[in-house]
Design brief:
Blueprint lengths: L1 E9 L14 E6 L4 H11 L11 H8 L5 E7 L2 E10 L4 E9 L9 H14 L10 E7 L6 H7 L3 E9 L4
Parallel strand pairs: 5-6
Antiparallel strand pairs: 1-6, 1-7, 2-3, 3-4, 4-5
């Protein structure tokens, strides 16, 4: 099986093309010690083969120990609808390391606004080693939800690199 990974970026907050607002949707910061992070990522990622869906306890401990990574729940009408992680990097870059909605919230017209909120938060992160955030980036793959790449592009992300990963089906 072949997986195509696409890396996308924004180099200015002005490049964000906001989706239609969804009343009742907010981001809420989550403490890295919360069991909600792993449980939510597993539920979101399992249908798409995300590595987080099969992390061991030791791998989760390592993932959650990153001192700069921020964890945010995506809430819709006071219910947990998804999760996003942001990681400030050198020279003012911020990587969106996780973004996804729980299966029961997919297909309800929420993803565009959830991504808009995530991107706005990424641009608001205190930059590392720079006066301001200079770039927000992420990656997606053909194993993610079929609408993921289109949503990223509609919000203003531009592809800057692709790579192919081969998986053994054996």
């Amino acid at each position: 099986m072949e997986e195509i990974i696409t890396y996308l970026q924004m180099t200015s907050a002005d490049e964000l093309n906001p989706a239609r607002p969804v009343p009742g949707m907010v981001l809420e910061r989550i403490d890295r010690a919360s069991p909600l992070i792993a449980a939510t990522q597993v539920r979101i990622g399992a249908p798409h083969g995300w590595p987080s869906a099969v992390r061991s306890d030791e791998e989760w401990t390592e993932w959650l120990s990153h001192p700069l990574r921020q964890y945010w729940s995506i809430r819709y009408e006071n219910e947990l609808a998804g999760i996003t992680d942001l990681e400030p990097q050198s020279d003012g870059e911020v990587e969106i390391t996780t973004f996804g909605l729980l299966p029961e919230f997919v297909g309800r017209g929420l993803g565009g606004h959830a991504l808009t909120l995530t991107v706005r938060q990424a641009w608001a992160v205190e930059p590392l080693g720079a006066a301001s955030v200079s770039r927000v980036w992420l990656h997606t793959s053909t194993m993610d939800h079929p609408n993921a790449l289109a949503n990223y592009r509609r919000r203003g992300f531009r592809p800057y690199r692709t790579r192919v990963r081969r998986h053994d089906d054996a």
